[in-house]
Design brief:
alpha+beta, five-stranded mixed β-sheet
Length: about 280
């Protein structure tokens, strides 16, 4: 008579404790699930924001290295045509024709840019051929002797590598045209065992790296940052050397697949123009 009720009470207490333990565990799991759901939502939002910022950065680089530089070239050619009128109509017509061709090329760049394709200059050709054509086009449109050289044995490059190196060459060459007052510029594409190199060297007036203004929307100045971002995205380095009266040299070093470049980057203190790089 004494053991039976005591045993029943013990069982009842154990059952109640068991249910309470299950309830607490269930609540803890529910809170954990809610926290995980909230964390997942925060992570998705953060990834979305990062993706938006990365896309904005890519768009800014593409616009600067293609459309902005092309429009600056068209502006220079039209100014030259304006100065030639009315005394030299044939010379003005030549400037206008080159400006028209520059506009056509930039229209192709814009369409390719919108379609997120590779640069039109690389369609059906190699990076070396595209750089050689870039030099020929620049020499034809401006009073600048642009020459291309290739060193080493060519190796296949990824489309991203070729596009980045072509954009760097376009940006550096545009800076030379707009600001360096150079008589000549040489572009050298080199193939080494573990990396590909791109050097753009002009004989212009150079600039003082310590006197560069900060980039701003009104005056531009984003070219070097865009070039550096392109090279860093590929694991490479960018070096810019210049001095007043001694020209400017831009050197990009990009490792081939599986060969990371461990060389130091020179930092944001220099720019491939004369105190002001391409500022559309």
């Amino acid at each position: 008579m004494a053991v039976g009720p005591a045993l029943g009470a013990a069982v009842a207490v154990a059952v109640v404790w068991g249910y309470e333990a299950l309830y607490r565990e269930s609540e803890a799991r529910r809170r954990l699930i809610e926290e995980l759901t909230a964390t997942r939502a925060d992570l998705a939002a953060a990834q979305h924001t990062a993706g938006v910022l990365a896309e904005r950065d890519r768009l800014a680089r593409e616009i600067h290295d293609t459309l902005a530089q092309g429009l600056a070239s068209v502006q220079l050619l039209l100014r030259a045509a304006e100065r030639a009128l009315p005394d030299a109509p044939e010379q003005a017509a030549g400037h206008i024709d080159r400006a028209r061709r520059a506009a056509v090329d930039n229209l192709a760049e814009a369409r390719s840019f919108v379609a997120a394709l590779a640069p039109p200059a690389l369609e059906g050709t190699t990076l070396a051929d595209a750089l050689e054509r870039l030099c020929a086009t620049t020499a034809d449109r401006h009073r600048l002797a642009a020459r291309f050289h290739r060193a080493g044995t060519p190796v296949p490059l990824a489309t991203g590598h070729e596009a980045a190196l072509l954009r760097i060459a376009q940006s550096a060459l545009a800076n030379t045209v707009l600001h360096a007052e150079a008589a000549g510029v040489e572009i050298t594409l080199g193939y080494l065992d573990d990396r590909v190199t791109l050097d753009i060297v002009d004989d212009g007036r150079g600039f003082d790296p310590a006197g560069l203004p900060a980039p701003d929307p009104d005056n531009g100045g984003f070219g070097l940052a865009a070039m550096r971002a392109r090279v860093r995205a590929l694991g490479g380095t960018l070096t810019v050397e210049s001095a007043p009266g001694r020209g400017t040299a831009v050197a990009a070093r990009v490792p081939l697949a599986g060969s990371p470049d461990t060389g130091p980057d020179t930092g944001p203190a220099t720019d491939p123009a004369t105190g002001n790089e391409a500022r559309p």
